[in-house]
Design brief:
Blueprint lengths: L4 H9 L1 H9 L8 H17 L7 E2 L12 H14 L3 E9 L2 E11 L2 E7 L7 H16 L4 E9 L7 E5 L1 H5 L2 H16 L21 H4 L2 H8 L8
């Protein structure tokens, strides 16, 4: 597998992050509060699948695991596109092994609209970049895309899903995606560890899961402990 939507976003925050993801993933530490946010986001996304009524979900797992079977999902997505399924969730696309799964595809008279679901009350720049990666991959797969939306969380509990049209902003980032996707692919495959000094990228837009490794937190904590006196 080359670059996924997740690895692209992580790599743009810090290239060292995706190198560690590939070569030293055991160093990863996900704080409990972060995992809670991720779980809440997944739950919100699952509920959003039905925002347009009946839908077909493309998720397929490798036997005996919770790891998505990407190739099977791509094939299933193609079947439903050929059938003209009205709403396709977790629609999977692959181009030169670069991969993305789109939260919601909705058929229109002009092809399909893309909906990326985020469990937040407003649209942030990284969400635009996230959607831009999806548009780039689907364009390379010759999907006719109409509009592109970020679905955010509204205040009305009865209608919590609020689509925001970001089509123009997303399409402006097409060349930016193209300029970086191949660079990140080379970086994650290189044998030498990427050397980058800790900085603002460690926390923006998200705290890195390798924060402790890069900041030598464990070593510092040990050094901060008082010396043990040996009684004779």
């Amino acid at each position: 597998m080359a670059i996924t939507k997740t690895s692209f976003m992580r790599g743009m925050q810090c290239p060292k992050m995706i190198w560690l993801d590939r070569h030293r993933p055991s160093l990863k530490v996900i704080p409990p509060e972060v995992q809670e946010r991720l779980d809440a986001g997944n739950e919100f996304g699952d509920k959003a699948m039905a925002m347009f009524g009946p839908y077909e979900e493309m998720t397929i797992y490798l036997p005996g695991t919770t790891i998505p079977d990407k190739k099977a999902m791509v094939a299933k997505t193609r079947e439903h596109l050929d059938k003209g399924t009205a709403v396709i969730c977790e629609a999977a696309f692959m181009s030169y092994n670069n991969y993305c799964a789109i939260d919601i595809l909705r058929k229109t008279d002009n092809g399909y609209d893309i909906y990326e679901v985020k469990n937040t009350p407003e649209v942030h720049e990284q969400y635009i970049e996230d959607a831009a990666f999806q548009y780039y991959i689907t364009d390379h797969c010759h999907l006719k895309v109409g509009k592109i939306f970020i679905v955010i969380r509204g205040e009305d509990e009865n209608e919590p899903f609020v689509p925001v049209d970001v089509t123009e902003e997303v399409k402006k980032k097409y060349n930016w995606i193209d300029n970086n996707i191949w660079r990140l692919n080379r970086i994650q495959k290189q044998s030498e560890e990427v050397e980058i000094e800790p900085g603002e990228q460690c926390n923006r837009p998200y705290e890195c899961w390798y924060y402790g490794y890069c900041h030598h937190t464990e070593t510092e904590e040990k050094n901060d402990q008082p010396e043990q006196l040996t009684l004779i």
